[in-house]
Model the fold of this input.
Amino acid sequence: MNENTGTLITIITEAPLEHTITRDIERLGAHGFTITDARGKGKRGLRDAGWDASSNIRIEVLCSSDIAEKIARRMKQRYYMNYAMVVYRQEVSVSRPEEF
Amino acid sequence: MNENTGTLITIITEAPLEHTITRDIERLGAHGFTITDARGKGKRGLRDAGWDASSNIRIEVLCSSDIAEKIARRMKQRYYMNYAMVVYRQEVSVSRPEEF
Amino acid sequence: MNENTGTLITIITEAPLEHTITRDIERLGAHGFTITDARGKGKRGLRDAGWDASSNIRIEVLCSSDIAEKIARRMKQRYYMNYAMVVYRQEVSVSRPEEF
Amino acid sequence: MTDPIILFFLLGISAGLLKSELRLPVAIYDFVSMLLLLAIGMKGGIELAKQPFMLLLPQILAVMIMGFVLPLFAFPVLHYVGRFMRADAASIAAHYGSVSVGTFAVAVAYMGTNGLTFESHMPLLLVVLEIPAILVGILLARGFSGKIQWGLVAHEVFAGKGIVLLLGGLVIGWIAGPEGVVSITPLFFDLFKGILALFLLEMGLIAASKVSSLRQYGAFLVVFGIAMPLFSSAVGVILGYALGMTVGGTAMLAILAASASYIAVPAAMRISVPEANPTLSLTASLGITFPFNVLIGIPLYYQLAATTHRVLGG
Amino acid sequence: MTDPIILFFLLGISAGLLKSELRLPVAIYDFVSMLLLLAIGMKGGIELAKQPFMLLLPQILAVMIMGFVLPLFAFPVLHYVGRFMRADAASIAAHYGSVSVGTFAVAVAYMGTNGLTFESHMPLLLVVLEIPAILVGILLARGFSGKIQWGLVAHEVFAGKGIVLLLGGLVIGWIAGPEGVVSITPLFFDLFKGILALFLLEMGLIAASKVSSLRQYGAFLVVFGIAMPLFSSAVGVILGYALGMTVGGTAMLAILAASASYIAVPAAMRISVPEANPTLSLTASLGITFPFNVLIGIPLYYQLAATTHRVLGG
Amino acid sequence: MTDPIILFFLLGISAGLLKSELRLPVAIYDFVSMLLLLAIGMKGGIELAKQPFMLLLPQILAVMIMGFVLPLFAFPVLHYVGRFMRADAASIAAHYGSVSVGTFAVAVAYMGTNGLTFESHMPLLLVVLEIPAILVGILLARGFSGKIQWGLVAHEVFAGKGIVLLLGGLVIGWIAGPEGVVSITPLFFDLFKGILALFLLEMGLIAASKVSSLRQYGAFLVVFGIAMPLFSSAVGVILGYALGMTVGGTAMLAILAASASYIAVPAAMRISVPEANPTLSLTASLGITFPFNVLIGIPLYYQLAATTHRVLGG
Ligand SMILES: Nc1ncnc2c1ncn2[C@@H]1O[C@H](COP(=O)(O)O)[C@@H](O)[C@H]1O
Ligand SMILES: Nc1ncnc2c1ncn2[C@@H]1O[C@H](COP(=O)(O)O)[C@@H](O)[C@H]1O
Ligand SMILES: Nc1ncnc2c1ncn2[C@@H]1O[C@H](COP(=O)(O)O)[C@@H](O)[C@H]1O
Ligand code: NA
Ligand code: NA
Ligand code: NA
Done:
């Protein structure tokens, strides 16, 4: 199989940011993303999803490590201060690497 | 703790494929799977989950690297051409390795 | 960027255990968690989420490897015997490491 | 003329057996259950307001005792005849000692369709019957010496959705009274049978999904799932008659006795007797007893109650 | 006086074009669809009980043939004029040969609002028309020689939510009859138009979301999405007249013919002709034909049916 | 006789304080909110059709000015007395200058139950009052010099679910008129109070969940959450009287003034003043002011309006 390593960057944050952040992600060069609804707890307290504004989303982006770096930086700069957010990255092997 | 590394293979694809793919996965020897509902964007456009047919699922399978390889191959061969799909793999350490 | 590796521990288990397990996690020193609803299949059969009691949750915790070890141990000791549960761990790089 | 809600149940079973992808979305199942629980509670509360509570105390006590006794009959049968492990036998016994709100709702509809009446405080007895069997089940599994987290169990039972909505509805109906609830009648009472139809559609789908586990766990569970409600309904009929209830009330008590829990008890058992296999009890309760009661049991128990009253006088 | 359900559709389109975040939750969309399907099925079943089934057989057969023939007209136009790939042309043709329950529901409401009547077995013809076009579509894409998993296709079609609920409702209505369903009337029939309004709100949002793909796929799809239903409605009118239907029935048959599937057919095509691009067919069906039929088509087809009957006598 | 919808609210609060697992599924909460917003909008629109729009312009303008002025009163109290950060004070002020549709719905039910009438264009004033306070809040936080993305804010406000459904309902009611909406009355109007009861059940659960944050943020927030609506209601009463409204209309304006937003404003503030802590404003608005208004405020403001009209004549 033509296979390659890529970076998977995961962003957990407030649901209402969905559109702004996916726009950011695409502008920074990623070719796709996957979103699941989530709830959770962190330093900004419980976010229990009973309520649109109090629910979280979990955004996953498969991309090159460069783009992942850019995305992480952008998140930090634009959202960390004021929004509930956690970001982490992993190396993964992707079966369809040509696109990332 | 008796612990071991295993492979986590994640498949993001169209929701209506759920039954076909989980059947494939079991036939290839995996002992379980976990599914979450998702939405996303990729080369086949926006899949926004407003609609059954337009929503995604995210399938996770913990298995040996051999089985993961087989699953990835099968996905490629049977679905890549015609369906929205992304597959990636990681090594993880599993706390209950006896079963995989 | 100030960046660091941390451990991501993922627990897939029965939905009604949500409160007990998140309490465990916090007591063991983790500063947060993220939960998504899931369904799946394992050695305890199909858990298809049609029904509250038959649905799964997927809990993710970013923490130090020590705390992850403690969490995995606790899960094993308290729940493995009697509940549907799978636990796995990965190293990830976290963009906001100061808190973990 | 078959009641259409039964037809919805049969549609659910058929679709399930045909492996149709049909399912009620989880949120809708929750919504429908909430409406039924609130409506049943309110109906009871409205009527309750009309009679002095003290007069009901003897009935409440007697019914509570029935709730303690029924699982004590079921347990030895399951453990010694059925050869189930101690924990499994205790858990299944608890399910059958407790009640099913869904079955009760179908019975309410059945009585209404056939122009039959019953004591209006039945929803109160429904609430009363939910709990004793849980305690008995836990004690049967653990023994009196065992370390049991009663606080957790109590919270699971009393703060559970079912009891909160039933009791909440009861109190609302009680305070608001018949004129008070007029404004919310269209949602809670006019739609009742339609909502019940949707509920039964989903219950049919769930019952059908238990067929494969049925095969696995064998004939004993099937026999028990039918024999136990028959036995319990007889106990209910005798108790109802002894308490001086009307034919309708006697039938309803028989139905309560015959029904098996599939919400409150499984949740409580999962926490307090986790080593019991939930598939066993749910297969029996949802896969056999619920369909049996809905399709055959309810009219049967009514006949039983009517015959008893006719024969013994009253 | 505009029918408010049409206004809900326009509200959905407007909100969608304004990129409002408004959406019906998926569970609610499913709930609303289920209620419509069951209601339409039951309405048909109730009426069906009143007439001998055998008399309907000729109509059923004729309509089924129409379902086979319509996609055979659409395919060459799409493939040779529109220059779509074989698979895409076949898939789109299947969509237009089959029917849309949403359009049918709006037509039912339209007839009701205007005090018009039609043959009560129309829901049966709706079910009949869903399927033939799927078979034709698959054969057009694969040829007779191709390896087709008919078992899978059959399961997808007959066990799909749509058919199960329509047919299930039909049978329930048939068995329960008009008095039987009285108790569930408040949910299924009194709320029908309100539920339809919510459904159309969401359909408007969906239609609006297709605008960008419309731009991408160009003018041919737009023209086809309007011309094809016009053509099909004429076929429907002729057939309805030939079958001796009333004006209302003729109009309903024209509407069925003119409507394009967006649930059953896409699901079946995705499985049996996966190389067809689903965006193409859904853009045409949901982005053009559904709005066209709802806003303009339905009254137009009624006029066509009325004129035909007046001119030709009947 | 207590209105049952209030009892549902109290049930929600009690269940929440008992840490019951009871929750309305998110999809159902959305559904219920949508129905309320559409119903309120349509009710207003139907009545609006009966009067010339131009006559309302002065009232609309006056009420809009009230929406600009109220947060200007709240801000210094919060910033200087309450010692909240500039951003937090501005955000809370915006919440209290705007309105709550939930409170309005309860007020509509209250007026109906007590046979009281009010100016039918109130839903229009509700829409009008939602927006000015948002602008004031942003300017208070940023100053006139600050770089504000007005485009984003405008989209967030006008394309938000709340405004789209309210305004959409208004227009639908306006165009369709009283006869037009008859067919959708069962869903939108007959079920109104039942749906409102479910909504209040969830609101009670949410209010109860704010108790822990209340403890954390101290007494000032509690005092403000009660004093501010009292003050605003007085302003509303004076304005209503000055505008020549009826007693009912004056009371409704007071209620609008006294209510605090918990949907539109939080969303807009999160985007335009993200450094404001949303927990603060939601704790005050949902944890204190909403329960206060629902349980005590609404009848109180009505009394205030009645007394004012009696004393001053009119
Ligand atoms: N240690 C953690 N592990 C997993 N998820 C976390 C953790 N901390 C925070 N989160 C998630 O990130 C969201 C925002 O975090 P915070 O900004 O810390 O409030 C929380 O609501 C959780 O869903
Ligand atoms: N780069 C990516 N990162 C994360 N998820 C992706 C990516 N590309 C595609 N996906 C997901 O996979 C689904 C199918 O992808 P595609 O086949 O590229 O349309 C999309 O709907 C997304 O949910
Ligand atoms: N091999 C596996 N891969 C992914 N998820 C699994 C696997 N095995 C079990 N699970 C998940 O963990 C849950 C409990 O597993 P079990 O205790 O094996 O029944 C299942 O319902 C699945 O959601
Ligand atoms: Na029982
Ligand atoms: Na057609
Ligand atoms: Na206000």
In short: The CA atoms of residues 6 and 64 of chain B lie 5 Å apart.
